[in-house]
Amino acid sequence: MKIITIIIFLFIALNIFSQNEFTPELVGGPCEGCEAVFEYSNQTLTPIDTFQDFYEAGTKLKLTGTIYLNDGTTPAKDIMLYIYHTNQDGVYPTKGDETGWAKRHGYLRGWIKTGSDGMYTFYTSKPGTYPSRSAPTHIHPVILEPDGKYYWIEEYLFEGDPLLSDDDTVKSSPRGGDNFILNLKKGDGIFVGERDVIWGKNVPDYE
Predict the structure, then answer these.
(1) pLDDT grade, residue 15 (50/70/90)?
(2) What is the dihedral of CA 196, 22, 148, 146, to 10 degrees?
C-alpha cells in the first residue's frame, strides 16, 4: 500500500513540477502528509476556495488573511496554501473513491494560490473535535512556495476552545507567525477568522 501511495504521489508531483518548473524541497523536518499540497491536480488555483460543507448545515466559517515574505510586510505572490480539517463530527470524511492523501485527509480540503496582494480566503464550516476529545478543534495548513519549498505551519486553533492547553497556546517560535489562534467575529451569518502568515518564519533549517 505504501509503494502504491508513493507511486501515485510521484506521478502527481512530476506532472506538477513539469508545469511549474521547480524542484520540491521539504523543509522544517518530517511532515506526514505534507505532500498532499501537490494533489491539486489540474485545478486552476485562485486566492479563494470554497469547501463543500459551506453549503451544508453548520457554523459558516471564512478563513482569511495575507501571506507575507520573510520581511513580514511585503505581500507574497504565487504562494500555495493547502488546508484540511474534520467535519462537524470530528472525522475526516471520505466518499470511498479517494486516492493519495485524500484517503486520510478526506474531501474537506482545498488549495489557494495568492495574487500580488498576498491575500487568501477559504469558505468552509467550523470543524468538530475528534471523538476522543483529546485535542482542540483545529485546521491543518501546509505552505508551498514558488521555488518548491514546502512545510507545515502551526494549525489554526480557535480562541475559547476548552481543550486548548498551554502547549497549544504558548509557543516561543510558532511556525508561520504568532496569530494562529483565531478570534472569530460574527457578521452576516458567518464567522470570520483572520490569520496572516509569514513564509518561512520559525521554520527550522529554512534558508
Answers:
(1) low
(2) -10
CATH number of the domain encompassing residue 81: 2.60.130.10
Domain ranges, residue 6 = 2-198
Q: Is residue 20 within 8 Å of 143, Cβ to Cβ?
A: no
**In the predicted structure, residue 188 carries a pLDDT above the cut 90:** no
Q: Provide the number of structural domains found in the chain.
A: 1
- 17: pLDDT strictly greater than 90: no
Rounded CA-CA distance 3/25 in Å is 20
pLDDT at 192 over 90: yes
CA–CA distance, 105 with 92 (Å, rounded to integer): 6
Predicted structure pTM score:
0.89
Strand partners for 82: 111, 142
Phi, psi of 12, deg, nearest 5? -65, -45
Do 19 and 12 contact (CB within 8 A), yes or no? no
